Amino acid sequence: MTQAPSYRIAWLPGDGIGRDVTEQALAVLHAVAEASGFALHVDEQLIGGAALDETGVPFPDATREACLDADAVLLGAVGGPKWDANTGAQRPESGLLQLRKALGAFANLRPVSVPDALADASPLRSEIVAGTDLLIVRELTGGIYFGEPRGRTGGEAYNTMCYSEAEVDRIAEVAFAWARKRRGHVTSVDKANVLVVSQLWRDVVTRVHAERHADLSLEHLYVDNAAMQVVRRPRDFDVIVTGNLFGDILSDLAAT
What are the structural domain ranges in the chain? Predict the structure, then answer.
């Protein structure tokens, strides 16, 4: 008799509403498992503020090991007002960054879809947002959130924005692959008129397009203009690819 397949899930409820939301997701997963004939083994672990309170670090070694051993990770929410005074590696969000790095989760896919029935719920006019269907592909393990050196000395603080050609190449490939499944248009967002790292970004995205995906369309926008255009004409966008910092901001903006 063939044994039913079994899957291990690392469950990281985290902070705030994270537990409530992920408990419902687990209920759905267990129902699917029962109906489909496979087994789930759920391993609850700490991350973020909950981990800080319990262990003194936002991403304990036990959590890292459980995630690396799992078939999937179910993550809730990280952070809250209780830890607002924490700084640096003692912030709950540091655990989220470490999780991304540990798993090599370099591509964050943020779909934005506004069906006509929900258009009135947006703070923007319904005729602008109705029918919006775009995908933001955000690079997640590089850029200014991970760059070194970083620090604070006396009255000065600094961070480093850094990307390699390989990092840009792989996220661009993800964006073009998704565009090929969708409407065939990629918008790359950078700040190449000011930042040297964005000049590299633009060069690599342009090369990936020319060498591997010339049958798709590509445009480049500076991030300030991109933010304005996402608000003014969201339906014109298909796939947006951008770096960690810009993607963080644009994906929250698009969620409006």
Answer: 1-105, 106-256
What does the pLDDT read at residue 71? 97
> Can you list the residues of the chain whose pLDDT is less than 50?
none
3-state class (DSSP) for residue 80: coil
Q: Which residue among the candidates 163, 190, 191, 238 is catalytic per the annotation?
A: 191
Is residue 133 annotated as a catalytic residue, yes or no? no
Rounded CA-CA distance 11/70 in Å is 10
Fold annotation for 1-105: Rossmann fold (3.40.50)
Options 15, 145, 163, 238, the catalytic residue = 145
| Residue-level pLDDT at 247 | 98
Which of 20, 53, 224, 236 does the annotation list as catalytic?
Answer: 224
Our answer to whether residue 224 is catalytic in this structure is yes
Q: Which of 21, 150, 28, 18 is CA-nearest to residue 92?
A: 18
252 in active site: yes
Strand order in the sheet with 72-77: 39-44, 6-14, 72-77
Contact at 8 Å (CB) between 108 and 222? Answer: no
- Does 236 qualify as catalytic in the annotation? no
Q: What is the CATH number of domain 106-256?
A: 3.40.718.10
pTM reported for the whole predicted model: 0.88
Exposed, middle or buried, 57 (CB in 10 Å: 0-12/13-18/19+)? middle
Active-site choice (15, 190, 238, 248): 248
- 84 among known catalytic residues: no
> What tokens does 148 get?
């070194």
